Amino acid sequence: MTAMHSITYRITGLVFLLLAVTVLSLTYLVDWQMTNLFHTYVMGGHHMSRMYGGTMGMPEQAFLSSVHQTLIWVGFGILLIGLFASYIFARSITVPLRTLSLAVEGIEKGNYGKKVYLEAEDEIGHLATAFNKMTEKLETNTKLRQRLLADIAHELRTPLAVIQGHLEGMLEGVIELDKEQIGSLYDETVQLSRLVKDLRDLTLAEAGQLTLDKKPADMNQLIVRVLQMLKPLADEKQISLESEMGSLPVLTVDTVRINQVLYNLLTNALRYTPEKGTIQVVADAAMIKGQEFVQIEIRDSGTGIAEEDLPYVFNHFYRADQSRNRKSGGSGIGLAIVKQLVEIHGGFVDVKSKPNSGSTFFVYLPIKE
């Protein structure tokens, strides 16, 4: 940035110009008024034209000359002080702006973690605070995107590696081509297809492009249907599925998507609830911040979630227990899909949990859109 185009010098010049015009105007008016008054005083009130006829003596002229010089020096001093003050004033605005500008250039180069620390509490200070929040969000989103891409690659690589290994073994004659092996390959392709479909739905939901087929639905029937569908899985682990539902109103929802929400939450509860545990579904109407919702709670007696992990359970591919793999811990996007599907219905989700005390997931669906 050249000196001529620097906003510091432009502000300094504008403020100094205004100050200079003011000082020169005041100096001229004071000098003119003082001369008139002095002439009137010396001549005893006669008209000014007679004063300039040579009636003033040398002492009077010397006095006026000294007054003129004094006013000139005072005006010059005020202008110097004004120039310095204008520059300081301009720098108080432009230095923080230049700091913000450098930080923005850093973001342009990919340095998302760069922050600006300004102690000012004015508009520039608020701008710096907003900038810091923005750069934190950008850094977080960048890391999440990088992690998402890595996790997608990992999740896709696992079934593909299994399929490739089995097929190579069959081609080389190491693995027999029987019904059991074909069934194993089929299971992997189903898992792969389900993962790709979930990723597609999640991407469309986050972009707000997932089409919903909404129609009136009885929430009691939806919940009972999902419980009946998952009862065989619960019986295998001797887990008790219980429900407690009030008189729920009819909601206008996409029944397939809400069914997916309940299915994902219940399968997640089944996955982390030990044998002979309990899963309870409680549903009723609730008033939150002046708006009516259907509140669905899914409580389990599982291992629970640590407090530091709670803010991230609805993130893509997040697993509180990092040692869990795809087989034991799911694909890692089920809860992320739950969050997006509920939000595009106008609702929201929440979770409460403590280690070794089970977890409770909350789904809130608006009664009136």
Quaternary structure: single chain
> Radius of gyration, Cα only, in angstroms?
39 Å
Query: Pairing-aware structural class of the strands and helices?
Result: alpha+beta
Low-confidence runs: 1-5, 45-54, 322-329
Question: Tally the helices: what do you get?
Answer: 9
Query: In which order are the strands of the major sheet placed?
Result: 2-4-5-7-6
The termini sit apart by 53 Å
Q: Which descriptor suits the 3D outline? A: elongated
CATH architecture call of the largest domain: 2-Layer Sandwich
* Overall residue-averaged pLDDT value: 78
Number of DSSP strand runs: 7
Write the CATH homologous superfamily of the largest domain: Histidine kinase-like ATPase, C-terminal domain
CATH topology of the largest domain: Heat Shock Protein 90
Characterization of the model:
The protein has helices at 7-42, 48-55, 58-108, 123-171, 179-206, 219-236, 255-272, 326-329, 334-344, and strands at 215-218, 240-245, 250-253, 278-288, 291-300, 348-353, 359-366. It has 369 residues and is of the alpha+beta class. It has three domains: 7-111, no CATH class; 138-206, Orthogonal Bundle (Helix Hairpins), CATH 1.10.287; 215-366, Heat Shock Protein 90 (2-Layer Sandwich), CATH 3.30.565. Helix 3 (58-108) packs parallel to helix 4 (123-171) and helix 5 packs parallel to helix 9 (334-344).
